[in-house]
Structure formats: structure tokens, C-alpha cells
Fold this protein.
Amino acid sequence: MNIWTQRLKAGLCALCLAAAFLTPALASSYTDVADDAWYASAVESMRTQGIMQGTGGGTFSPDLITDRATVVTVLWKIAGSPAAAGTGQIFSDVPTDRWYAQAVAWAYELGITTGTDKGEFRPADQITREQLAVFFYRYDLSLGHETASGILDLYVDADQVSSWAVDGMRHAIGAGIVEGSDYQLSPQATATRAELAVMLDRVLTPAAG
């Protein structure tokens, strides 16, 4: 190889490196998700992986409160969309032809959801942050994953976590899935689609170390 060939290859490598640094960040795929929004990268990640999609018309609706049907469905998707063993209707309010029916059946079989004492799943019910934490906790239990144990007492509103949600919230904190703001967990607050996308991204992104 002569000196000119070496220089040509070196120049091409330099150009490739320069182009890589000058390439702008990928723009959001949704008109209502700003490129610099705190949830933008998580939303795009969920879109490209086929876990969460938009709400129509090129929008994602990041501030829309998420519901139980959506949460169970995204957990089912990150698990690989497995088929449930049973094929019949489990809950009175989840007909087998609903878009979330397979996910609900799967979640029920694995103990991720148990429904209400009236035999209902209540798919359209808005979900709170502590309920979301419990879903993630049960999901990890169903897969045989080791659960985490975060310290609730670090947060000023720890006493607002319902007794049935304590283990779930400890796990979500310890695993880095749920993060508080200003030392508050806001366990009774409803969770938005943006928050759900970020939590899912944390679940799917291995911790560095």
C-alpha cells in the first residue's frame, strides 16, 4: 500500500468521524413530543421497539393518563407477547375480542393481575403510580427475577403508600424504575403515558456498572 492510498483512507476515516459528530439528533416521531422533552428518548425507544404507539394523527398524548388495559398490554409486549394457556373469557368486562384480551389473560395466569372481587378487570380505569409499581413488581416476580428493596423512608410521603403496595413500591424504587421528585413519590397520583414510557425504558435498559 503506497503513501497516497494510506492518506486517502485516513482522510475518508476522518470524514466519517466528522459526519458522525455533525449528524443531528433524531427528531421526535410525534408532533406533541418536543425533541428536548424529558421523556422524548423513552417515547422514541418504545415506538421503535413496538411497545407503545401513538394515539392517532401523529400524536403520542404524553400527558394522557394511562389505564390498566394499556399497562398490562405493554408488559405483555416486553415479555414477547406470549400466548395465554386458556382461551376463554376470564373477566366479565374483558370480552375475548378486545385488543387487550390476550394480554389480560396472560397477566392473570401469571398472577400479574387478579382483578376485583366482582370478577372484573376494569380495563379503562386510570392507574396510579403505586398501582403501576405493583404491576412491575409482579411482572418481575412472574419471571423469577430477584426483586429489589428500596428505602421508602427517604421520601416525605412514604406514609401515603397503601399497605398492599409497599413491596411493589420498594421494588420499583430499588430497581430504579420509579424515581421521586423533591423527595416525594406521589403514590396516589395518576400516571401519564410519558411516565409509563420512561419506566418501561428503565426496565429494558440494563443498569451501567
The radius of gyration is 21 Å.
